[in-house]
Amino acid sequence: MPRAILTDIEGTTSSIAFVAETLFPYARARLPAFVAAHPDKTAPILAEVAAIEPGDPVATLTRWIDEDRKATPLKTLQGMIWADGYRERAFTGHIYADAAAALRRWHDAGIALYVFSSGSVAAQKLLFGHSDAGDLTPLFSGYFDTATGPKREAESYRAIAAAIGLVADEILFLSDTPQEIAAAREAGLSALLIDREHGAGDIATFEDIDT
Ligand SMILES: CSCCC(=O)C(=O)COP(=O)(O)O
Ligand SMILES: [Mg+2]
């Protein structure tokens, strides 16, 4: 039995469609107005974007949403905009029923639960705090985003293991992305590839995980 489970969100606990068809369009439509209404808190984000790509940062951010870029400043800004959506109850955070049940079961069994997603830590807390299955944040011991490092690099998983305070092979990582699974395994974590749509990964649902 692992001592900790580290999970990805999009494609793993939650559907790709929810992120692509609900969250991204919500942020895209509100991005220019949000930036205009919150100059103080968005100025550092826009400066970071302009340093990466010279030009109009709002146009760059809009294009990055269309390209599904996992850039940290975009993810930070998206999280700020989604906070309005959750507060206004425009949507709830999608979570597969099997994932919610397994997270509760693992938590009750004493397995520490962590998240590693490209979505910002603030966005992760919003999704699980306003999920279809209610507030799941009490189940989690910690959250990691790309401020820790890219999800496709082994060093990020070594940093997470060190932050959690466990030996790498005591942690089970779950993700829908083969490159993330490979990076986690390179760092010594156990890892399972989930493929919810085609069942072609190591597992198709969280019910298939033998802890
Ligand atoms: C935290 S909810 C928003 C999800 C998101 O923006 C994203 O890029 C998800 O990527 P993941 O690393 O969870 O596959
Ligand atoms: Mg994913």
Structure characterization notes:
By secondary structure, the protein is of the alpha/beta class. It has two domains: 4-15 and 93-208, Rossmann fold; 18-87, Transcription Termination Factor Rho, Rna-binding Domain, Chain A, Domain 1 (Orthogonal Bundle), CATH 1.10.720.60. Helices cover 49% and strands 11% of the residues. It has helices spanning 16-37, 39-52, 57-66, 72-87, 97-108, 121-129, 154-164, 178-186; strands spanning 4-7, 112-116, 140-144, 171-175, 190-193. A five-stranded parallel beta sheet has the order 3-2-1-4-5, sandwiched between helices. Strand 2 (112-116), helix 6 (121-129) and strand 3 (140-144) form a beta-alpha-beta unit. The longest helix has 22 residues, at 16-37. The protein is globular, with a radius of gyration of 17 Å. The structure holds ligand L4RZE5RM and magnesium ion.
Short account of what is shown:
By secondary structure, this protein is of the alpha/beta class. It has helices at 16-37, 39-52, 57-66, 72-87, 97-108, 121-129, 154-164, 178-186, and strands at residues 4-7, 112-116, 140-144, 171-175, 190-193.
